[in-house]
Design goal:
The chain has 390 residues and is an alpha+beta fold. It has helices spanning 61-69, 90-108, 129-133, 136-141, 147-153, 206-218, 258-277, 296-307, 310-317, 324-331, 363-370; strands at residues 21-26, 38-43, 48-53, 77-84, 115-122, 162-170, 173-182, 195-200, 235-240, 285-293, 343-346, 349-353, 356-357, 374-380, 386-389.
């Protein structure tokens, strides 16, 4: 790993084991030397699995494979390799996926359609499946890795491993939610982030689990951006082992899931913000809140327009309180706002209201805010119900 990001957390959190889920890591030597680059997650028979994937037209071969496997919401194992994305590799890439899945299924004693795959790393380089399969006996025999070891095994250009944990109740039963993720560059997800793995010991049916993941993804991994580029390999998996033995929930809108839904949002948003804090070359963490839009979709588009504006980014990087660039970015989002209603604040300091700069505005206060590591931008575009945070 390169020099640790100045925005990194102090340490990796303490994540408990999830009953019904085993972790194993190994070093394949595929790209990296003297470090683990393979992660195997083995699931119990009762586990359900949900997934969201990149919407890129050049999606990697493992993404295409895993989309098909997840059609029934069940799987027995997830294998991840770091250093080679197996993306844009044609027939060789597809063959590698089949060979890898078949080899792992044989060692685990399960069917090939129970294997999920994820890869991250260089695009366009053929993946040597034999180097992966040579590690499978060791992986299966040593399934006692920690969450931190797992998080480190999937890193590529990241400068720190990312993890999060929370406990909550479902119908009076205590459940755990743990998550790890990787991502640093090519971050402007159109579904999720680079790679993310969230696991819980709750019992939740496949369709409900998928709905929960999609909803939480839209408020987390789909609400971040570093460089406005969407990866070929984005994959996020949500595993529910059922080991907590609560009555299985089949409806995502079941009121018994209210606390769990909030907890899942917490874990995924924590992981998403860690990815932004590890953005390649990042020196500032920026939070953009939009209110008053006609709906949430419109608010999200405006927020992303501000977040992805090179001119807004360069102003913030240079400590220049040029708030006019925010006005520009809001306007180019194409959401037909009434500029006479526009209000802008930075760090809670009101700059503009009712479509014009406020009287007596003191730029010094905003400049002082921009000297910090954490920058906040608040924009109100009207009196509609739509809000968004990016």
């Amino acid at each position: 790993m390169t020099t640790r990001s100045p925005l990194a957390p102090d340490r990796f959190p303490n994540l408990p084991a999830i009953d019904g889920l085993s972790l194993a890591v190994a070093a394949s030597g595929l790209k990296y030397k003297n470090r683990d680059d393979l992660l195997l997650m083995t699931l119990c028979d009762t586990a359900t699995v949900a997934g969201v994937f990149t919407q890129s037209d050049t999606a990697a071969a493992p993404v295409i494979w895993s989309r098909d496997v997840l059609a029934n919401g069940r799987a027995g194992a997830i294998l991840t390799n770091a250093g080679n994305a197996n993306a844009f590799t044609g027939k060789r890439g597809r063959d590698s996926v089949h060979q890898t899945s078949a080899a792992l299924a044989s060692v685990l004693g399960i069917s090939v359609d129970q294997i999920l795959l994820a890869s991250t790393g260089v695009i366009g380089e053929p993946l040597e499946s034999a180097k992966l399969s040579a590690c499978f006996p060791k992986l299966v025999a040593n399934q006692g890795a920690s969450w931190e070891q797992a998080a480190r095994a999937i890193l590529t250009t990241d400068t720190f491993p990312k993890g999060a944990h929370i406990t909550c109740d479902i119908d009076g039963v205590s459940v755990n939610i743990c998550g790890i993720a990787k991502g640093s560059g090519m971050i402007a997800p159109n579904m999720a982030t680079m790679l993310g793995y969230i696991a819980t010991d709750a019992a939740i049916a496949p369709d409900a689990l998928q709905a929960l993941l999609i909803s939480a993804t839209n408020r987390s991994f789909n609400a971040i951006t570093v460089d406005s580029d969407t990866s070929t390999s984005d994959s996020v998996f949500l595993i529910a082992t059922g080991a907590a033995a609560n009555t299985e929930i089949e409806d995502p809108d079941d009121p018994r899931l209210a606390e769990f839904r909030h907890a899942l949002d917490h874990v995924m948003q924590d992981l998403a913000t860690q990815i932004v804090r590890d953005g390649e070359g990042a020196s500032k963490f920026i939070t953009i809140d939009i209110t008053g839009a006609r709906d949430e979709i419109s608010a999200h588009k405006i927020a992303m327009s501000v977040a992805n504006s090179p001119l807004v980014k360069t102003a913030i990087a240079g400590g220049d309180a040029n708030w006019g660039r925010i006005v520009m970015a809001v306007g180019k989002a194409g959401q037909s706002i009434d500029q006479s209603c526009l209000a802008i604040a930075m760090g809670g300091i009101t700059i503009a209201r009712d479509g014009a700069r406020v009287e007596g505005f003191d730029e010094t206060l905003v400049t002082e805010h921009m000297a910090g590591d954490n920058i906040s931008i608040q924009v109100c575009v009207g009196d509609g119900p739509g809000t968004a945070r990016v």
